[in-house]
Amino acid sequence: MYESSERHALVARYDDVWLLGGVRTPFADYMSVLSSVSPTDLGIHVARALFQRLDVPAADVGAVIAGNVAQSSFDAFYLPRHIGLYSGVPLGVPAVLVHRLCGTGFETILNAADQIALGRAKLALCVGTESMSRNPVAAYTHRSGFRMGQVEFKDLLWEATLDTASNTRMGETAENLARHYEISREDVDRFAAQSFERAVKAWQDGHYQDEIAPVTAQQWQLEGYQARGIVLPRKVERFDRDEHVRPSSFEVLQKLRPAFGKDGVQTGGNSSAIVDGAAASVVASGDYVRAHGLKPLARVVAGAIVGVPPEVMGIGPAPAIRALLGRLGLSSASVACFEINEAFGAQYLAVEKELGLDRERVNVHGGAIAIGHPLAASGVRLTIAAARELRRARGEFAIASACAGGGQGVGILLQHAI
Questions:
Q1: Active site residue: 9, 58, 102, 160, which one?
Q2: Distances (CA, A) of 5 to 250, 305, 319
Q3: How many CB atoms are closer than 10 A to CB 347?
Q4: 13-28 pLDDT, tens per residue?
């Protein structure tokens, strides 16, 4: 089934491209503290925080690549441009929006690596940002008016989960994998409980502090243009912790009802959390790194993108990772750590079974079931997390990967920075 995926994989290798670092907002629960903030402003916030943290001037940026899946503000067309302008990037630097559904965040980094490898930029800003709460209730057929009994507004957040090619919702694709790989409800709930447990421990141990750019009410001025900013709910002065990360035992998860049929294995508790948030990273050429005496977080070695059958879209990371390893002559044993998006518990477990992964090297500080999955931000978060864990574990290689709706898989291979 997946041989075609690997045969048609788009694989790129990079000789001297570096990930300087990254930050993200804490992820907020659906309709919670960040629900009134546009994804553009979340993106501006993390970009500005990252430049400050890395002590890299925004004026040196030669390309802005931003990702956003659901247009959730009226000025969403301008999102990448506004992120660049209001984060201090020079007026003349162009910006582009990329979209590969759940792989969008990875696409920002791979696009940046391509620009650097082509010699078009020496420093690129990559931002993935998403407001799930602000997904619109929309109508697509009423511009010419309404006919009696045919007024149709629908919830984009729900309707967009249906792949109309295969007529399967994203959760149903996970159920298909559960049946194919003989994954039980108990297997999925035990995995979800572990994801929560690991994320809770990571926060308790202070692991995420270096990754988080706390959100506060703020305003940004841009001479000659309108001001932008973030307004938080009354009595909220600072948002600085992932909101969905909480103790969630196997026993509690077992009590939840299946979401996709009475015999299904997926529930609201063992699927990725619906959250709002943004993440940013900076990718640089080796020449820029050496000229400024920087200590990058990791080297970007390669990226792979594959297609898989839409009805089992969640298996995407398996052929993407195989394509990466195969083209570089590596084995999975040579990879010190993996970050694989937990879109659904059964989806991750299918990838684990397909690749024979050691779970002790995967998502060791929790995954999207506990932390959340703000679509365009996840790939950036996962890449940052993999690079940070690679440094902590003192390993040689790390891989970050995710599936994408419609039937795709994306992966990035990182190497430790000397």
A1: 102
A2: 35, 9, 6
A3: 34
A4: 999 999 999 999 999 9
